Amino acid sequence: MDRSTGRLGGLNVSESGGVADAKNLRVKLVLLGDSGVGKSCIVLRFVRGQFDPTSKVTIGASFLSQTIALQDSTTVKFEIWDTAGQERYAALAPLYYRGAAIAVIVYDITSPETFTKAQYWVKELQKHGSPDIVMALVANKADLHEKREVPTQDGIDYAEKNGMFFIETSAKTADNINQLFEEIAKRLPRPSTT
Amino acid sequence: MSSSDPSSPYADDPNPSPSDNQFKSLKLEQGSDSNIIQKDDAIAQEEGEQESLNENSNNRQETSRDQGDRIDSGNVSSVVWRRTNSEVEVEGPSSPSSSGYAGERGSSGASDDDEIHEVANNDGIDGVFDSQASWLPGKRHVNEDDASISWRKKKKHFFILSHSGKPIYSRYGDEHKLAGFSATLQAIISFVENGRDHIKLVRAGKHQVVFLVKGPIYLVCISCTEEPYESLRGQLELIYGQMILILTKSVNRCFEKNPKFDMTPLLGGTNDVFSSLINSLSWNPSTFLHAYTCLPLAYATRQAASAILQDVADSGVLFAILMCKHKVVSLVGAQKASLHPDDMLLLSNFIMTSESFSPICLPRYNPMAFLYAYVQYLDVDTYLMLLTSSSGAFHHLKDCRIRIEMVLLKSNVLSEIRRSMLDGGMHVEDLPCDPLPCSGSVSPHLGQHQQPTDSPGRFREPSVGIGGPDGLWHFIYRSIYLDQYVSSEFSAPLNSPGQQKRLTRAYQKLYASMHDIGNEPQKTQFRRDENYVLLCWVTPDFELYAAFDPLADKGLAIKTCNRVCQWVKDVENEIFLLGASPFSW
């Protein structure tokens, strides 16, 4: 394993990596959000193309990785920390978001409480995360639009106010899942290539 | 780690040498009659004690034995029973309910004699077909509460509540709907505590209500399974341990700050962990033996696994554990660090995804502190756990895992593990026929040593289909020094999960009666009822529990037990983790 290329996240790539690394980014991404909003489902859809409605509750945090190729022929390897949403792990979250280049904060469009929880995570990261962390606000379970309780506009407004990227996804139908990660990849700060 | 030469089977021998073994067993044989008499005495004694206790406590209640303060049992049990099962008739004081093995003598009516049948039958009524194979995690009967008949009919309830009476966990039903019931339990406990006493057990008819107080956390089991008090209490201890593994004991501080603290959100998502632990109480001997079991492997194969784990442990990993389902392949601890078998049970029960890095607490190691567990499945059943005290060690542990995995693949350990899983462990049908002449070469080896000709057409006693020779159905051998046990595979006539659960409970009862601190320690016990002949033999080195056909001959059963011990001895290199055990410190 080549660990010289900044294992703590993409932001280190420019510092420690050479020219080759400018084309092959490696970034640490953390998923945060309330329990049951579908964080693991989003990751599993992205990494394995699967959806398991009966998937187990995440305990602690699981680690997955996936590489995508962008049109400008750069590749981005996401090292994803899928954290548990339960309250008991809230205090341990810094363990996972420390050094993360990207935070994906997820809520469930059918549950206003999860939207509130998402805002808590945004504030937490603004206070304690890396200063130039890229944050995405993800409104998941978009397929359940009949049960929607958080209007799309609320998500858009909040994201805009906090300089975040916003997207509505459905891990179940795979809607916007790949787009989410592609958009994130495009927004990453690139090492200055001459 | 091990200074002695582990390659010699008898060096650093934790078990008696075969000759010792034989000598002791001869003694056993000679003394068997007097042992039986002794046992009868013990039963009488036990029963007597039971009766007097029941009298003292005004029929079916025991508060702590050392303190005389008794509570008015009539009130309390009627409170309990109106809330849980109003149909149950409360037994009169003249008929003391029996505990332990007194039941065999039919001292308290019909229910005792066929108690185990009843368990099996009622499982059917439950509609819960819980076994290793068919059991699915997840909470059932979520919509029930203490008003539902179906909830009241459950054979065994477990509750965790806070000292202010707030529900924390219930095996059945929705915790929030059980707030009133939970408050009642709390009232009972605090009533006794206010009298500066501790409530341990309430007996009402066929039901036992067992209490365990752990600071601000109360645990209660309500059961009509007739399991001994000590067993049920041990089960509550395990459930408490599982909670500590998830949260650490520092959760107590939340109650210091706010006595009305609601703990349920902290345990969010862990229902499966508790239900899987409770399920394993009915089949996993680790839950009452306080020992772990190993996957049978050739000595060299296990050594190869241990060597690479040891390598990693030297690089700052606290514990490195390689397991296959609930069986240990190898385990290694850093210098002076020892892992309690109960902690291993709770850790392996704690469902973790792969690849993951999560905070966990080992209650017997340090109940106050989190460790971090790196978990990776190497195949469907085999997983590696690396524990560290450093929260930033993920990448180091991941590198360690990659190294370990490469070594295990190269040395074929992983394929040996899969083969052993398919072959299974010790089968009673394979018990070598004669204990004396066949040592080593003649006795069948396990795992990869099994010749193809051995498996389908191997020699069986005439009793094909009904267990091993002389009616031997099953055995468990527990090595005291190793903290390990080996049990034979379940085979006919113990095929169904119901029968396996029944036998597990019978062993559990046997274990409790052999380890009853109140009574004089026993060395042997021979019991016959309509389900089994059970034979238990406890020495300073090992404990043997064996189940036979109910018609088995006593003399032959004792001889067979000697053969089992010899057999275990012969293959101990393959069934136990020797030498490298951190338990032997």
UniProtKB/TrEMBL annotation, chain A:
Keywords annotated in UniProt: Nucleotide-binding
A Pfam family that the UniProt record links to this protein: Ras
GO molecular function per UniProt: GTP binding; GTPase activity
Keyword Nucleotide-binding applies: yes
SUPFAM superfamilies reported in the protein's UniProt record: P-loop containing nucleoside triphosphate hydrolases
CDD domains assigned to the protein according to its UniProt record, in alphabetical order: Rab5_related
Keyword Nucleotide-binding set for record: yes
Highest taxon of the lineage: Eukaryota
Alphabetical list of InterPro entries matching this protein: P-loop_NTPase (IPR027417), Small_GTP-bd (IPR005225), Small_GTPase (IPR001806)
Name of the protein in its database record: Uncharacterized protein
TrEMBL record, chain B:
Annotated FUZ/MON1/HPS1 second Longin domain residues: 316-403
Bias (Low complexity) ranges: 1-20, 91-100
Gene Ontology biological process terms in this record: protein targeting to vacuole; vesicle-mediated transport
InterPro entries noted in UniProt: FUZ/MON1/HPS1_longin_1, FUZ/MON1/HPS1_longin_2, FUZ/MON1/HPS1_longin_3, Mon1
Annotated region (Disordered), positions in chain: 1-125
Biased composition (Acidic residues): 43-52
Domain FUZ/MON1/HPS1 third Longin: 471-571
Spans traversing the lipid bilayer: none
Domain FUZ/MON1/HPS1 first Longin: 156-277
Basic and acidic residues bias (residue ranges): 62-72
UniProt record similarity statement: Belongs to the MON1/SAND family.
Biological role: Plays an important role in membrane trafficking through the secretory apparatus.
Name of the protein: Vacuolar fusion protein MON1 homolog
Organism of derivation: Salix dunnii
